[in-house]
Amino acid sequence: MLKFGTSVTINRPPEDVFSFVANFENEPKYQREVEVTTKTSEGPIGIGTTFRDVVRVMGLRLESTYEIIEYEPSRSLAIKILKGQAPFTARYTFTDVDGRTELGFSADVYPTGVLRLVQPLLQLRLQRQFEGNFNRLREILES
User: Which of 44, 55, 90, 127 could form a disulfide with 107 if both were Cys (CB 3.0 to 4.6 A apart)?
Assistant: First the structure.
């Protein structure tokens, strides 16, 4: 299992940051490796909402389906892979700091197949990738 995480302070209130992040169809806007994300369930976004992702990691095209397993508006959000080559769980936290948002992110990844062979490289790559993603997210939400 791989563990990694990051955080970033965004000069926007938690409600705004949560609203943008919880709509996972926004991922391609700030995560360069995400080619497309599609909501695959009916109704409003919340616990049980599912999405399908197509991403490129280390030259591999990976598809996954995941579900929101925790949804507390403006406070926390968690997802779990239901189907994919790299099962993981991820948690986002949104903390109000004088009207700004401290966005925290942590993930546990369980690589399978060829990804198991490159775990140390994969962990370093994912850490750097998500740090860059969250910096792009900050730029988008502050512009």
Answer: 90
- Distance, CA of 76 to CA of 91 (rounded, Å): 7
Residue 51 to residue 66: CA distance in whole angstroms: 6
List, in order of start, the domains of the chain with CATH numbers.
2-142 (3.30.530.20)
Could you report the per-residue pLDDT of 75-115, keeping only the tens digit for each? 999 999 999 877 889 999 999 999 999 999 999 988 777 66
* Residue count of the chain: 143
Phi, psi angle pair for 20, to nearest 5°:
-70, -50
131, amino acid identity:
E
Give the side-chain half-sphere CA count within 13 A for 70. Answer: 13
Buried-exposed string 40-64: b where 16+ CB fall within 10 A, e elsewhere: eeeeebeeebbbbbebeeeeeebeb
What's the helix, strand, coil split of the chain in %, to 5?
30, 45, 25
Its pTM stands at: 0.90
CA-nearest of 104, 124, 95, 108 to 1 is 108
